[in-house]
Amino acid sequence: MRSFAAVIFVVLAALVAGAASERLVGPADTDVPAGTHPPQIARFAVLVYSMNRGAKLRYVGVSDSDVHPHQGGMKYKMVVTAADAGGATAQYKVLVWGIPGTYQWMLLEFKKIKLN
After folding, report:
1. Which of 12, 60, 72, 109 could cysteine-pair with 81, CB 3.0–4.6 Å?
2. Which PANTHER family does the record cross-reference, listed alphabetically (predicted)?
């Protein structure tokens, strides 16, 4: 059985490879490393959660995001919309920590937001 760390490494390698081919150039992107934009981090979170929990979630979008330095890396807090296998969407509170430019990334929280 593969360890969770091995799965994370494979996922990160795929994300970094994809991010390298999707570099955006523009004034808003000049000081943000490739691969660390909120949609890319949100896709990472959905993918890792789905692989770890056996959920068949698909990334739909990110509606709110906040990033700040934390313990030598960056902490990303966001609201992510994902769809299940049946197409029903839900929003999730997501917390990801990582060091841009490395393979050191962790999904810290992925919690469904209950609407009243």
Report:
1. 60
2. PHLOEM FILAMENT PROTEIN
